[in-house]
Amino acid sequence: MFVIKYIKEVWTAVRSLLKGMKRTLYYFTHHKEIITQQYPDNRDTLVLPERFKGEVVMPHDENNEHRCTGCQACELACPNGTIKVIFKNDLTPEGKKKKAIDKLVYHLELCTMCNLCIEACPSDAIKMAQTFEHSVFDRNQLTKILNKPGSKIMEGVE
Amino acid sequence: MWSFSGIANNIHTWLGEHFNATWTMIIEMVIAGVAVIGLFALLGLVLVIMERKVSAWMQIRLGPNRVGPKGIFQSLADTLKLLVKEGMTPDGADKLLFNVAPFIAMIVAMLLLAPIAFASNFQLWDLNIGVLYVSAVSSIMVISILMAGWASNNKYSLMGAMRSGAQIVSYELSAGLSVLAVVVMCGSLQMSEIIESQRNGWWIFKGHIPMLIAFITFIIAVTAETNRAPFDLAEAESELTAGFHTEYSGMKFALFFLAEYVNVFIVCAIGATLFLGGWMPLHIGNWEGFNHAMDYIPSSLWFFGKTFFLIFVIMWFRWTFPRLRIDQLLNLEWKYLLPISMINLLVVTAMAILGWHF
Fold this sequence. Notes:
Chain A is an alpha+beta fold and 158 residues long. Helices cover 24% and strands 21% of the residues of chain A. In chain A, the strands form 3 sheets. Chain A has a 3-stranded antiparallel β-sheet, with no helix packed on it. A two-stranded antiparallel sheet of chain A has the order 1-5. Chain B has one domain (87-354).
C-alpha cells in the first residue's frame, strides 16, 4: 500500500513539473507572445490596455459644459484626500440661487489611481484618462483643476 | 579534416622539432593552462548571455537587446563593469579566508576540467579513475562556499553557506549513485573507455528505462550541486540577499559568478559524456550507412552540442520551477532521490550481470 502511494506521489510530481516545463517551452519557442513594450521607441504606436488608468480627467463637451453637480461623492470616496471640491453660488434663469462647483481640485501627486472616485460619481462627470507621462519639474504643476475656466454644468444633469 | 586533435598533434610535433622533451612538456602545459583560462572566460560570457536570453524568452520578455546586435555584447559590458569595481573586504571579515575563497571556487572548476574529453583524442588528462576523480574533486566546491560564508562575518552569508553544505553533501550521494550506474554498465572509470563503450549507441538508449531514471536523478542532483534554482538555497536572494556571496563585490564576486557557470558547464559535460556519449556521434546498432553519415559531423560539435543541450535543460529548470524550502529540499533527496537511485542501481547491476542491454 505504502509503495503504491509512494509511486503515485512521484508520478504526480513528475507530471506536474513536466506540465510547467511544457508551458515555459511554449513561451520559449513562441516569441510572438512577448508582452514587453519597447516604450520610448514605440511611443507613437503605443497601445495601452483598455483598463489602464493614468489620471482623473473631467470630460467637457463642445459648449464647454461638464456633468459635475458638485455632490462631493468623489471627495468622500477618495481614501487619501486627492480631490477637493470648492463651491460657488450660481444663479438660475429664474433668479434662484443654486450650488455649483467653482473648482474641482485634483492632486495628481497624491493619487493612487484606485478608481474609487469614478465608481462613486453618480453622474459620470469624471473618468480615468490613459495619459501617463506625468513627470514635471515643479510639483505645483501636479495640482490640477479639472473643470475648465468658464465651464458650467450641462443642462439636465442634477 | 579540421579537428582539435589534429591541431594538438601539429603543435606537439612542431614543439618536438624545436625544443627538447622537458621544454616541450612545459610549453604544452602553459598552452593548456592558457587555453583553459580562455575557455573559462568565453564560457562565462556565452553562458551569461544565454541564461539571460533563455530566461527572458521563457518569461515572455525580450531580454537584453541594447548592447550590440540583439544584445549579444551585454555580458561583455557587465564583465567590464565588474572589472573596474572595487573589491571590498569588510572590516569584521576573516581577511585571508575571505580573499582566498573565490579562488578556491575557480581552482576546483579548473581541476574538474582535466578529465573531460572535448573531442576525439583531445583531453587534458585521461586518468584511469576519471569518474572517481570528478566526484571527489567536485566535493571540494563546498569548502569554498563554506569558507566564503564563514569568513564574511555576516549572518546571511553563514546561513547560506550552511544550507549549501547540507545540500551539496546530501545531493552528492544520488549524483554518485547515478554515475555509478554507467560505471557498472561499461565496467570502467576511465573517461575515454566510457566514451568508447558507447560506440554502438549511447547509454541512455542502450540501458533502457533504468538508465533513463539514472539520467534524470543525475540531472536533478547536479542542479542541486551547482546551487542553481530550484535548489539555489545557498543564494536565496529573497531570503538571504545573496547568501554566501553577500559581502563580495567586484572581481571577487565575478569569480564566484564565473565559477557557478563553469560548474554548470562541467557537470553538463560529464552528464553528456556518461549518458549521451561525449564526443561520440549518434550511432544506432548496425546501421552502417547512418553511422557513417553521422561520423561526418566533427566530434567537437557533438560534444558541445550535447553539453549545451543539457545546459539548456538546467536553465529550463531554473526558469520554470519555484525555489524549494530547505526541508523540502532534504526530503526530496533523502526520501525520494536516494531510495530511487539505490533501487535503480540494483536493477542496473542485475542488467549488467545478465547482459540485458544492447
